[in-house]
Amino acid sequence: MSEFINRYKYLTVIVIGLLILGFYITKETVASYEEGEVSNGGAITGTVTFAGDVPGVKMLVVDKDQEGCGHSSVHSEVLLVSADKAIKNVVISIAGISKGKKFDRSGGNPTIDQKRCIFIPHVTVVPPKSTVDILNSDEIMHNIHTWSIRNTAFNESAAGGGNLPKVFKYPETIKITCDVHKWMTAWLIVQDNPYYAMTDADGKFQIGDIPPGTYIVQAWQESLGQTTKKITVKAGETAKVDFEMTAKKKRNRRAKKEK
């Protein structure tokens, strides 16, 4: 019995230690970026395109509350590729930059709405410590479920016409779903520095006021993963960096099993 108690105490100490360590690591991550003024900064522009055969448009079946949702099917926004292979909603960011321009916090709280049983917008990028208004413009009940580690996850119902203001303190990629309507998904990216952009329908992006230097630029897309490139930004100049992304290869489980 005493051996069991000692093991329990030992495990408790380890868990508490890990929680404390995680707290300080997270706290340091939030405080690591220094906001200031950038003089004669540079910029990066580019385009993100799909390499290979473009997947067909996927339709999601609305199999519940069709009257309240207003339709029986909807286009999936998981991967939006135009006829000329431009990819929309790719998040472009500079990794590891510790000092530069200020976060743009103008325009009030960012919002994620629920309209016709779809999250709008599908992808949202916000600074740390942002309050996000999660709205419900539908006349039916939704249930908001966030999938996160650093930020406190929540699972709460949202009445029609309601608003759930939530604070997201720490940098993280968060998936949002509705437990009532399983086809509903969205992404919230809490970004650790203000050097980010999202591609438009033509796959284009631009990030400005970058201090001169050499950086790693990341392109992230929810179904295609992440790819990176190194680029040098010069004072007062615009550097161009284009990305090609492709579908992840599916693992052959049967072949792996036979090995």
CATH topology (level 3) name of the largest domain: Immunoglobulin-like
Name given to the CATH homologous superfamily of the largest domain? Carboxypeptidase-like, regulatory domain
Q: Treating each run of at least 4 consecutive H or I residues as one helix, how many helices?
A: 3
The number of E-state strands comes to 23
Helix content: 10-25%
Strand percent estimate: 35-45%
Largest sheet: 5 strands, mixed
- Output the helix-strand order: HEEEHEEEEEEEEEEEEEEEEEEEEH
Overall mean pLDDT stands at 90
Cα(first) to Cα(last) distance is: 45 Å
Shape designation: globular
- Describe the strand arrangement of the main beta sheet, using strand numbers: 11-17-16-13-14
* Proper CATH architecture of the largest domain: Sandwich
CATH class of the largest domain: Mainly Beta
Structural class: alpha+beta
What is the CA-based Rg, rounded? Answer: 21 Å
